[in-house]
Amino acid sequence: MPVRRSMIALALAVGVAVAAPALPAQGAGGAQAAPAQGSGPNVVLRWNTALLAAIRTGTLGPPQVARALAIVHTCAYDAWAAYDGVAVGTRLGGSLRRPAAERTEANKAEAISFAAHAAAVDLYPAQRAGFDALMTELGYDPANPASRPAQTGVTACQAVLDHRHADGSNQLGGYADTTGYAPVNAPVVVAEPLTSLAQPGRWAPLTYVNRAGALVTPPFLVPHWGGVASFGGTARDLADRVRAPYAYGSSGFRTQSAEIVSITAALTDQQKAIAEYWADGPASETPPGHWNLFAQQVSARDRHRLDQDVKMFFALANSVMDAGIASWEVKRDHDSGRPITTIRFLYKGQQIPTWGGRTVDGASWVPFQAATFPTPPFAEYVSGHSTFSAAAAEVLKRFTGGDGFGGQAVIARGSSQIEPGVTPAQDVTLRWPTFTDAADQAGMSRRYGGIHFRLGDLEGRALGRSVGTAAWERAKSYWTGHG
Fold first, then answer.
1. Which of 5, 79, 272, 330 has the smallest CB count inside 10 Å?
2. Measured distance CA(316)–CA(296) in Å, rounded
3. What digits encode the pLDDT tens for the residues 15-42?
């Protein structure tokens, strides 16, 4: 919801975390957090904020966004590693290491900034003016990487970019599918009752009017993404261990379908607020970026210095990239239908309850989502929200040394985009005592919204935890010098 984004932006601008206060962390990320130096956010936070701004104005979907965050923060980490006495870079190892006399905060910040700038421009070239402006604000000339720290940052990042340009994402080809995927079902027009579907258990494209007023039929988003090289090296293997979803028409499938109909028909204001808060559709930072906002709150809460933030965002961003790879591999493997099509087909000709106190023919059922983005354009199983969030929560737990979060968001009365002026009837406060609570709520939000079934949510959470653990171990191996 817009209220959430403005609240976090304001909190960061004045230097106050939205998360509740907590004691400084003493986790595996490093020594006890010391007071931050300087009057503003460190360069890691500045570049994270700049990239999230670019993400909101761009058109990339969640898995591409997760990869973009991972590349920028890997470039930043590899540049920083050259100024650490132990850490090694992900591509060039310790070959860029600078002597102890050069390991100053100023040199670290400059190397990180030139690296992050190079990555950001590569990923979002249309946003270059904003990235150049940040460099100028930080006191650097982006067109003149002549200093030793600048050269170190550019060299470190170019090695990462060279690797990622050949990682299977097809970034240089506009992320176009490389596998020849084609849906087995014809497009379903959301505004019309569903009367036929070739294979009701499989994914079907949707035709609807978007926010710009255009009639669109989005294709399956990056169906080749399971083939992208993962950071932890195990994303695809972990995906292959996920059990199959319920077959269409089976007892398990009918039970979970009935559950979605029942849940969405009886939504409370709080459940509606949860569904909308976590939706993260177009023009948002998407689920991977959402967890970067939480990490910014952790940084403020625990008074991180630059060294801690460069490692935390490096581990976090790579975990959500791998979560995208793993969940999209499962999505492509099973090509499973979304509730908006499977429930319509299952209940067509029957009167069923739905949100807003209405009763509709099952063939016209819609989830509790904005009409201009009724369901994301990719398969149901497993939930990307659940996988991204569980992976991110796992890394933040391990970095901070505990599950305590203390985050919250206030959803203003009447701020719903689906039921504007009506929902919620009163302000609703969402609270997450732990990172796990936040991740679980993110997963559950997709069931409240009628986007995912129970199994897709729960299996996504389990997959995310496994992916997050593997990414954490890999990240830690680099900054302890064993990468």
1. 5
2. 11
3. 323 333 333 333 344 333 333 345 689 9
